[in-house]
Amino acid sequence: MSDRVELVVADGVAEVRLNRQEKLNALDFGTFDLLIEAGQALAAMPGLRAVVLSGNGRSFSVGIDLDALANEGASALSNLAARTHGDANLFQQVALQWRVLPVPVIAAIQGHALGGGMQLALGADIRIAAPDARLSIREVVWGLVPDMAGTVLLRQLVRSDVLRDLLFSGRIVTGEEALELGLATRLAADPLAAARQLAREIAASSPDAVRAAKRLVNAGGAGASDRDMLLAEAAEQQALLASANHREALQAHAEKRPPVYCD
After folding, report:
1. Residues 111 and 218: beta-carbon distance below 8 Å
2. Residue 255's pLDDT is what?
3. Which of 139, 176, 180, 233 is catalytic?
4. Top CATH class, 5-203
5. Which of 26, 134, 204, 242 has the fewest CB atoms nearer than 10 Å to its CB?
6. What is d(CA 122, CA 101) in angstroms, rounded to the nearest whole number?
7. What CATH number does the domain located at 207-256 have?
8. Distances, alpha carbon 231 to alpha carbons 81, 108, 212, 237, in Å
9. Radius of gyration, CA atoms only, the chain
10. CA-CA distance, 138 to 130, in Å (whole number)?
Protein backbone atom coordinates (compact mmCIF):
# COMPACT_ATOMS: atom_id res chain seq x y z
CA MET A 1 0.00 0.00 0.00
CA SER A 2 2.57 2.54 1.14
CA ASP A 3 5.85 2.96 2.92
CA ARG A 4 3.85 3.74 6.10
CA VAL A 5 1.39 0.85 6.08
CA GLU A 6 2.18 -2.43 4.37
CA LEU A 7 -0.54 -4.85 3.26
CA VAL A 8 0.43 -8.35 2.16
CA VAL A 9 -2.00 -11.21 1.45
CA ALA A 10 -1.07 -14.87 0.92
CA ASP A 11 -3.09 -18.08 1.25
CA GLY A 12 -6.09 -16.29 2.72
CA VAL A 13 -4.08 -14.55 5.47
CA ALA A 14 -3.51 -10.78 5.31
CA GLU A 15 -0.79 -8.93 7.18
CA VAL A 16 -1.23 -5.24 7.94
CA ARG A 17 2.06 -3.77 9.18
CA LEU A 18 2.73 -0.30 10.53
CA ASN A 19 6.02 0.83 9.03
CA ARG A 20 7.27 4.05 10.60
CA GLN A 21 10.12 2.34 12.40
CA GLU A 22 12.09 5.53 12.92
CA LYS A 23 9.09 6.89 14.88
CA LEU A 24 8.34 3.57 16.66
CA ASN A 25 5.23 3.42 14.46
CA ALA A 26 3.70 6.59 15.87
CA LEU A 27 0.32 7.28 14.29
CA ASP A 28 -0.05 10.41 12.18
CA PHE A 29 -3.02 11.46 10.05
CA GLY A 30 -1.64 9.89 6.88
CA THR A 31 -1.30 6.58 8.71
CA PHE A 32 -4.91 6.82 9.89
CA ASP A 33 -6.09 7.22 6.31
CA LEU A 34 -4.00 4.27 5.15
CA LEU A 35 -5.29 2.03 7.93
CA ILE A 36 -8.87 2.88 6.99
CA GLU A 37 -8.03 2.13 3.35
CA ALA A 38 -6.54 -1.24 4.36
CA GLY A 39 -9.60 -2.14 6.43
CA GLN A 40 -11.96 -1.29 3.58
CA ALA A 41 -9.92 -3.35 1.12
CA LEU A 42 -9.91 -6.36 3.44
CA ALA A 43 -13.63 -6.11 4.16
CA ALA A 44 -14.31 -6.47 0.43
CA MET A 45 -11.69 -9.15 -0.23
CA PRO A 46 -13.06 -12.57 -1.25
CA GLY A 47 -11.31 -15.58 0.22
CA LEU A 48 -9.90 -13.70 3.21
CA ARG A 49 -9.66 -15.94 6.31
CA ALA A 50 -7.58 -14.11 8.93
CA VAL A 51 -5.60 -10.90 9.50
CA VAL A 52 -2.38 -10.26 11.42
CA LEU A 53 -1.93 -6.67 12.63
CA SER A 54 1.63 -5.74 13.58
CA GLY A 55 4.26 -3.02 13.68
CA ASN A 56 7.64 -3.34 12.01
CA GLY A 57 10.73 -2.77 14.11
CA ARG A 58 11.07 -2.44 17.87
CA SER A 59 7.50 -1.47 18.78
CA PHE A 60 3.92 -2.14 17.78
CA SER A 61 3.07 1.57 18.14
CA VAL A 62 3.85 4.29 20.66
CA GLY A 63 0.55 6.00 19.83
CA ILE A 64 -0.30 9.37 18.35
CA ASP A 65 2.53 11.30 16.71
CA LEU A 66 2.42 14.36 18.98
CA ASP A 67 4.31 16.50 16.46
CA ALA A 68 1.70 15.70 13.82
CA LEU A 69 -1.05 16.42 16.34
CA ALA A 70 0.42 19.83 17.05
CA ASN A 71 0.93 20.68 13.37
CA GLU A 72 -2.20 19.20 11.82
CA GLY A 73 -4.55 18.70 14.74
CA ALA A 74 -6.53 21.93 14.57
CA SER A 75 -8.21 21.08 11.27
CA ALA A 76 -8.27 17.30 11.65
CA LEU A 77 -9.79 17.42 15.15
CA SER A 78 -12.15 20.33 14.67
CA ASN A 79 -15.34 18.23 14.58
CA LEU A 80 -14.88 14.89 16.31
CA ALA A 81 -18.63 14.62 16.86
CA ALA A 82 -19.20 14.14 13.12
CA ARG A 83 -20.10 10.50 12.35
CA THR A 84 -18.12 9.81 9.20
CA HIS A 85 -18.12 5.99 9.43
CA GLY A 86 -21.51 4.79 10.65
CA ASP A 87 -21.54 5.23 14.43
CA ALA A 88 -17.87 6.28 14.48
CA ASN A 89 -15.63 9.12 13.41
CA LEU A 90 -12.47 8.46 11.40
CA PHE A 91 -10.20 7.98 14.42
CA GLN A 92 -12.62 5.59 16.13
CA GLN A 93 -13.03 3.64 12.91
CA VAL A 94 -9.26 3.05 12.72
CA ALA A 95 -9.54 0.74 15.75
CA LEU A 96 -13.17 -0.36 15.56
CA GLN A 97 -12.98 -1.63 11.98
CA TRP A 98 -10.90 -4.65 13.01
CA ARG A 99 -13.55 -5.76 15.48
CA VAL A 100 -16.28 -5.65 12.84
CA LEU A 101 -14.18 -7.12 10.03
CA PRO A 102 -15.83 -10.46 9.11
CA VAL A 103 -12.70 -12.54 9.84
CA PRO A 104 -10.53 -12.88 12.97
CA VAL A 105 -7.84 -10.25 13.52
CA ILE A 106 -4.75 -11.03 15.61
CA ALA A 107 -2.49 -8.25 16.92
CA ALA A 108 1.19 -9.01 17.58
CA ILE A 109 2.56 -6.65 20.26
CA GLN A 110 6.25 -6.15 20.90
CA GLY A 111 8.00 -3.17 22.45
CA HIS A 112 5.31 -0.56 23.08
CA ALA A 113 1.56 -0.29 22.58
CA LEU A 114 0.72 3.09 24.05
CA GLY A 115 -2.28 5.40 23.75
CA GLY A 116 -3.64 5.21 20.23
CA GLY A 117 -1.36 2.25 19.56
CA MET A 118 -2.99 0.36 22.42
CA GLN A 119 -6.46 1.27 21.18
CA LEU A 120 -5.54 0.03 17.71
CA ALA A 121 -4.51 -3.32 19.22
CA LEU A 122 -7.75 -3.44 21.25
CA GLY A 123 -9.69 -3.57 17.99
CA ALA A 124 -8.21 -6.98 17.25
CA ASP A 125 -10.03 -10.13 18.34
CA ILE A 126 -6.85 -11.58 19.85
CA ARG A 127 -3.71 -9.86 21.19
CA ILE A 128 -0.45 -11.78 21.49
CA ALA A 129 2.13 -9.81 23.48
CA ALA A 130 5.76 -10.24 24.41
CA PRO A 131 6.20 -10.71 28.18
CA ASP A 132 8.29 -7.54 28.38
CA ALA A 133 6.06 -5.45 26.11
CA ARG A 134 4.87 -2.16 27.62
CA LEU A 135 1.19 -1.33 27.22
CA SER A 136 -0.82 1.66 28.39
CA ILE A 137 -4.03 3.60 27.93
CA ARG A 138 -1.78 6.63 28.05
CA GLU A 139 -4.02 9.53 27.06
CA VAL A 140 -4.54 11.07 30.50
CA VAL A 141 -0.78 11.72 30.77
CA TRP A 142 -1.08 13.91 27.66
CA GLY A 143 -4.20 15.69 28.95
CA LEU A 144 -6.53 13.64 26.73
CA VAL A 145 -9.01 10.78 26.93
CA PRO A 146 -9.00 7.65 24.76
CA ASP A 147 -11.01 8.56 21.66
CA MET A 148 -10.32 5.72 19.23
CA ALA A 149 -13.19 3.53 20.48
CA GLY A 150 -11.01 2.58 23.45
CA THR A 151 -13.75 2.78 26.07
CA VAL A 152 -16.12 0.67 23.95
CA LEU A 153 -13.49 -2.00 23.36
CA LEU A 154 -12.03 -1.99 26.89
CA ARG A 155 -15.33 -2.50 28.69
CA GLN A 156 -15.66 -5.84 26.91
CA LEU A 157 -12.25 -6.97 28.18
CA VAL A 158 -11.64 -5.77 31.73
CA ARG A 159 -13.57 -5.19 34.97
CA SER A 160 -14.92 -1.71 35.60
CA ASP A 161 -12.45 -0.99 38.42
CA VAL A 162 -9.53 -2.17 36.27
CA LEU A 163 -10.76 0.08 33.45
CA ARG A 164 -10.87 3.05 35.83
CA ASP A 165 -7.37 2.27 37.12
CA LEU A 166 -5.95 2.21 33.60
CA LEU A 167 -7.84 5.30 32.42
CA PHE A 168 -7.23 7.49 35.48
CA SER A 169 -3.54 6.65 35.99
CA GLY A 170 -2.25 6.10 32.45
CA ARG A 171 0.19 3.65 33.99
CA ILE A 172 2.27 1.32 31.87
CA VAL A 173 1.90 -2.43 32.38
CA THR A 174 4.09 -5.24 31.11
CA GLY A 175 2.83 -7.96 28.81
CA GLU A 176 2.66 -10.28 31.81
CA GLU A 177 0.38 -7.92 33.78
CA ALA A 178 -1.62 -7.18 30.63
CA LEU A 179 -2.39 -10.90 30.42
CA GLU A 180 -3.60 -10.93 34.03
CA LEU A 181 -5.79 -7.86 33.48
CA GLY A 182 -7.31 -9.05 30.19
CA LEU A 183 -5.57 -6.60 27.86
CA ALA A 184 -3.54 -9.42 26.30
CA THR A 185 -4.87 -12.80 25.22
CA ARG A 186 -1.62 -14.74 25.47
CA LEU A 187 2.14 -14.21 25.70
CA ALA A 188 4.87 -15.26 23.29
CA ALA A 189 8.57 -14.53 23.07
CA ASP A 190 8.02 -13.84 19.35
CA PRO A 191 4.49 -12.39 19.11
CA LEU A 192 4.55 -12.02 15.33
CA ALA A 193 5.57 -15.65 14.74
CA ALA A 194 2.86 -16.79 17.15
CA ALA A 195 0.26 -14.57 15.46
CA ARG A 196 1.19 -15.91 12.04
CA GLN A 197 0.94 -19.49 13.26
CA LEU A 198 -2.48 -18.87 14.79
CA ALA A 199 -3.65 -17.16 11.59
CA ARG A 200 -2.60 -20.20 9.56
CA GLU A 201 -4.49 -22.49 11.94
CA ILE A 202 -7.61 -20.34 11.63
CA ALA A 203 -7.23 -20.24 7.85
CA ALA A 204 -7.23 -24.06 7.79
CA SER A 205 -10.68 -24.18 9.41
CA SER A 206 -14.03 -23.73 7.70
CA PRO A 207 -14.18 -20.05 6.66
CA ASP A 208 -17.97 -20.01 6.91
CA ALA A 209 -17.88 -21.41 10.45
CA VAL A 210 -15.16 -18.99 11.56
CA ARG A 211 -17.08 -16.00 10.22
CA ALA A 212 -20.26 -17.25 11.87
CA ALA A 213 -18.40 -17.65 15.17
CA LYS A 214 -17.14 -14.07 15.00
CA ARG A 215 -20.63 -12.78 14.28
CA LEU A 216 -21.93 -14.64 17.35
CA VAL A 217 -19.19 -13.30 19.63
CA ASN A 218 -19.77 -9.76 18.40
CA ALA A 219 -23.52 -10.09 18.92
CA GLY A 220 -22.98 -11.28 22.48
CA GLY A 221 -20.64 -8.39 23.18
CA ALA A 222 -23.43 -5.96 22.33
CA GLY A 223 -25.35 -7.06 25.43
CA ALA A 224 -27.84 -9.37 23.75
CA SER A 225 -30.14 -11.40 25.98
CA ASP A 226 -29.74 -15.16 26.43
CA ARG A 227 -32.84 -15.63 24.29
CA ASP A 228 -31.38 -13.53 21.48
CA MET A 229 -28.08 -15.41 21.61
CA LEU A 230 -29.76 -18.82 21.58
CA LEU A 231 -31.75 -17.81 18.52
CA ALA A 232 -28.61 -16.43 16.87
CA GLU A 233 -26.75 -19.71 17.52
CA ALA A 234 -29.56 -21.70 15.97
CA ALA A 235 -29.78 -19.41 12.93
CA GLU A 236 -26.03 -19.55 12.25
CA GLN A 237 -25.97 -23.33 12.65
CA GLN A 238 -28.98 -23.74 10.40
CA ALA A 239 -27.34 -21.68 7.70
CA LEU A 240 -24.12 -23.70 7.94
CA LEU A 241 -25.93 -27.03 7.78
CA ALA A 242 -27.91 -25.85 4.78
CA SER A 243 -24.75 -25.05 2.82
CA ALA A 244 -23.81 -27.80 0.36
CA ASN A 245 -20.13 -26.84 0.55
CA HIS A 246 -20.20 -27.00 4.34
CA ARG A 247 -21.92 -30.40 4.36
CA GLU A 248 -19.26 -31.78 2.03
CA ALA A 249 -16.48 -30.42 4.25
CA LEU A 250 -18.15 -31.84 7.35
CA GLN A 251 -18.44 -35.24 5.74
CA ALA A 252 -14.80 -35.17 4.62
CA HIS A 253 -13.71 -34.26 8.14
CA ALA A 254 -15.78 -37.06 9.64
CA GLU A 255 -14.22 -39.61 7.30
CA LYS A 256 -10.71 -38.56 8.33
CA ARG A 257 -11.42 -38.50 12.07
CA PRO A 258 -10.14 -41.56 13.95
CA PRO A 259 -12.72 -43.66 15.80
CA VAL A 260 -13.42 -42.88 19.46
CA TYR A 261 -13.31 -45.80 21.88
CA CYS A 262 -15.00 -45.81 25.26
CA ASP A 263 -14.50 -48.24 28.11
Report:
1. no
2. 64
3. 139
4. alpha beta
5. 242
6. 13
7. 1.10.12
8. 35, 34, 13, 10
9. 19
10. 19
